[in-house]
Amino acid sequence: MTAHLPGFAATNRTAPKQGRAQAENEDSFDGNRTSGRYAVADGASTAARSEVWSRILAEAFVRERIDPLRPEQLADLRDRWWKQVCSGSLPWYAQTKLLEGSAATFLGLTVTAGRFRAVAMGDTCLLHVRRGALLAAGPLERSDQFTRTPPLVYTHPAVELAEEHAWVREGEHEPGDAFVLATDAVAKHLLHRHEQDGAVPPLPKSDDRVDKFLTWVHEQRAAGQLDNDDATMCVIRT
Amino acid sequence: MYEAEINRKQPACLLLLIDQSYSMSEQWDSDVSKGQQLATAVNRVLSSAVLQCSKGDDRVYDYFEVGVLGYGLDTGPVLHGSDASRPLVPVSEVANNPRRVDQVPRKIPDGAGGLVETTLNMPVWVDPLTNGKTPMVQALRWAEQIVSSWCGQHPDSFPPIVLNLTDGVSTDGDPTEAGKRIQDVATNDGASLLFNAHISAAQGKEIAFPANSSALPNEHASTLFDISSVLPSTMAEAASQAGYPIDPGARGFLYNAHATAVIEFLDIGTRAATPSGLAELTTSADTGE
Questions:
Q1: What is the DSSP letter of B131?
Q2: Which residue of B has its CA nearest to A50?
Q3: What secondary structure does DSSP assign to A109-168, as a single string?
Q4: C-alpha–C-alpha distance, residues A223 and A79, integer Å
């Protein structure tokens, strides 16, 4: 007899860099409460078509149960990126830029009854929160660990997957726990607030208006508390 | 200072001054003329600038404005679409208006440990031109007018970066005052940066990013040193990472430079003009912006 797996709804909020349109946001999120799979990827802003690469990574993890951090599965995703971005005639600079390839950080989370498993590469982080307290965070655990050169998942076939930087965590969860998947600017902010206040700030709720998150991002940036980067926060409550 | 974020609302300014005097026809490294080597280096820098603003499709974000002034028999803007009334053009115009795009065969890694031959695009905006004397003062004065006007329009931007590339001695007077006047022009983020690269076919000792003039061989070198700006800390860090010994107060100055050093000099001197400013000096694949 198969146990019934409850679904866990995800509340996803995202904002582009200040002065940019949402269409220019290079973060991607995907999630499926039935399968309990959720993913966030952050496309490198200086790389080619990184919004396409981050979307491919997130969707493949959630919809096809592909783990981008397994080399044998990554190769196929790299081919998909190349086929998607090379359509039609392109100017010289686009052709040259595409030859350099793309890159993104990646975090995938699988939540089942009572258990979770996360895989990640880079500084898109998972925070496990219980009753407002931070139980664990990773791949980065402190706000001072964020750098400008996080490990990335690259499209270029000549760049091997840095498996030594792959981060994997498994554990248990309780009803009422929250998992936060956050790209670097938001993750750094949340960890810093926790270091300062001993608590994680209030997280977005499913019935919150989207505008509330955008206002929060604007205020935090204006106060110098949030880096001007694409900002994505996905909250899964168990 | 020198920390302003570079974005489309707040672009940066990159102005190259290229010596096109007759002496640039002399051979430099690798049996190629100084003019040809310099044109290749400048084209490479412009290509790099475009690629930093490209997203890999038909989008090129105008993170900065670019100008190239040639000085020799004639002095003036040389980029397509630029002229005396419009010496700077947005980088998207640079991207879409090279004189031509050469196709160069290259071998690149195939991902399986081997190499595969492919064709790379080599856009050309500047061809070598070698005629006349070296009116450096005229070029610097023109540059001062350009950056002065630009700073007035972009008071919060990263300050203009002016790169002067020459092989000789100014033939229209002492460039000191004209150079200093460029450095007097500022935005709220700092004074304009004037960097000078003196290239030479001679076997003299190459001097890179000196912090003082004690090792310089002559008055001409000291003059160029005097009008070269101190490297902002992040550029100094980039120069250090490129392998140059950098002392406090190191200036953006090369003397008796060979081709490799000039290419690295241009790279270090222009890497501030990246989409997110100095923060990205040390990486080309960063997730932040």
A1: -
A2: B55
A3: EEEETTEEEEEEESS-EEEEEETTEEEEEES--SGGG--S----EE--TTS---GGG-EE
A4: 42
Q: Search chain A and give the residue with CA nearest B52.
A: A46
Q: What predicted TM-score, i.e. pTM, was given to this entire model?
A: 0.84
pLDDT digits (tens, 9 = 90+) for B43-90: 988 998 899 889 999 999 998 899 999 999 888 999 999 999 999 999
In contact, A77 and A60? CB cutoff 8 Å:
yes
ipTM: 0.82
State the Cα–Cα distance between residues A159 and A156, nearest whole angstrom. Answer: 6
B106 reaches A (C-beta below 8 A): no
* B27 interfacial to chain A (CB closer than 8 Å): no
Q: What is the gyration radius of the CA atoms in chain B, in angstroms?
A: 18
